[in-house]
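I would like you to sit down with the pair of lines that follows and say whether tokens and residues agree.
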Amino acid sequence: MLKKLLTALLVFSLVFVLAGCGSSGDTADGGNEAAAEPQEVVEWTFAHEEVQGSVQDRYAQKFKEEIEELTDGAVNVKVYPVGQLGDGANQVELLQNGAIQLGINNPGSVGTLVPETNLFSLHFLLPADMDKAHELVNNSEAMDMLNEKYYEKNMKVLGWFPEGYQMWTGNKEITSPEDFDGFKIRTMASPVISESYKAYGADPTPIPYMEVYSSLQLNMIDGQVNPIFAIEEMKFYEVQDYMMLSNQAIFVGTFVANDMFWESLSEDRRAQVQEAADAATEYILGAQKDLNSNRLESIKENSEMEIIDLTAEQRAAFEEASQPVRDFYVEQYGEDAGKILDQLLKDVEAIQQ
């Protein structure tokens, strides 16, 4: 079924790309004759991994608004949330093959293709200050190194953005690594994520995002980890008793374009795409802060879930237990991964001074 979908979408996307390359909106010289003719509207497909109204969806909608305005309507962006074109892994495959032009992914779904990006699955790595974390993922030399790795896998990175700190929910209170002993926690299918929870004594269990609620409801798993906005919009609070404000990691989104699509654009159109991406990246910092804050209040008002804010001492115990996973990351993914980690750690230290 996926192969049929890939083929159909690829045909359509190639038609759109070819139409875009031949339209007046994407010509390099922008001559008078082209300006006199009405532009042919091209449609770009943009898929992301979350539901409507989420951080990724708001980012996508902001990009759509910006690029359509910058191109005077010559480009129309069609946004597809998770499930409409498959799950996160399916969408990455579609993007790589050029069946879709634009997408947002995360280290959990792209980690097998760009293993170095599992860096962001390490715990207690990024700054505790969200503004600094946002600045870091957009300016660190380590990100330039990661961008090169993405391009080798047919994806042009247009922007990075934190979606919020990840929090634990569970059927019991978790305030120390010992509390995780034998605890079945839903994670994305990433060796680094799995190793991170094994370091606490937990039993990491990969389950597709859209199946997490039912798995919690049926007690197939004991808990899960996600940003607050996702916990609220997926109604995990209905089937979990506790939420721990752990702040052990930041969920990071990556906005990318298919490399062939990117290379098919004129220089002017590329500049417009990057300008729209930069605007969306700047906008999403405040948007995700507001969304996570409002969703936390919603959980408090509409559920009996107990919210536990871990103390500095409790977080320190988890941080200490997580340190060996950094060595695992380097051993698993090699010398380049080690260099990227070292550079990011230097940049984290510098930005916090």
Notes: The chain has one domain: 2-26+39-351. Residues 1-36 have pLDDT under 50 and may be disordered. The radius of gyration is 21 Å.
